[in-house]
Amino acid sequence: MKTILKFDSKNSFDLPVEFRNDDVRFSDSFAEYFIERYSKPNNMVFDPFAGFGTTLYTAEKLGRKAFGIEYLFERVAYIKQNMGNNAVILHENSLNLEKIILPEIDFILTSPPYMSKSNHPQYPFAGYEITGQGYNDYLNDIANIFCHLKSKMKPDAFAVIEVSNLIIDEELTPLAWDVAKSIATVLTLEHEIVIEWQSDSSPTYGFGYDHSYALVFRNN
């Protein structure tokens, strides 16, 4: 496997105007590459942080079944307008996975909501509301979410997590590396792939870097 991959950061379709200021999607070309590599037709592809549905749409397009969870209702409503019969989206919080009936999972492809280590009172897993929880709570919640998912993943199933380190106000948050450590308490970290994002319209990825990481985990 190559350790550096290049993808266009632009998606094949634009979001409605009301969502464009929050457009932090990975591209559907990125999703297509990893779904084809780590799953087969009719497999179940899962996204616990569905966002605007890129994983679900792409999985359906490639002949997979798709299941997603998204915290924000307006995003769930948008996804439902665009998905077909082989996809399911739930308006839920992935912190509540123990209460949700999930299918057996062949492959997970997702990008978690991001958090910096300081000066970030809004909690990602509460829709960026202020809860009093901090960066260590965030990392513990990441581990707990994947602990629940592990029991639904088939043996040797893969999970690919797209995540970036952050530079905000000249402070580095090694988010990708910290997320890798958290999930690695549950699943086996097999690869880290540098994703170089290319765009004609913007010089950087958007978080201080022009790259992110695809962290590849296996359930074994």
Q: How would you explain this protein's 3D organization?
A:
It is a single chain. The protein contains 5 helices and 12 strands. It is an alpha/beta fold and 220 residues long. The chain has one domain: Vaccinia Virus protein VP39 (Rossmann fold, 3-Layer(aba) Sandwich). It has an 8-stranded mixed β-sheet with strand order 1-11-12-8-5-2-3-4, sandwiched between helices. The protein has a two-stranded antiparallel ribbon with strand order 6-7. β3, α3 and β4 form a beta-alpha-beta unit. The longest helix has 16 residues. The protein is globular.
Topology at a glance:
Elements lengths: L3 E5 L19 H11 L5 E4 L6 H8 L3 E6 L2 H10 L4 E5 L13 E6 L11 E2 L5 E2 L4 H16 L2 E11 L2 E3 L2 E3 L1 H9 L4 E11 L12 E8 L2
State which percent range the strand residues make up: 25-35%
Give helix % range: 10-25%
- Largest sheet, if any? 8 strands, mixed
**Rg to the nearest angstrom?**
16 Å
Distance between the termini: 20 Å
Features:
220 residues; alpha/beta; Rossmann fold; eight-stranded mixed beta sheet; two-stranded antiparallel sheet; globular
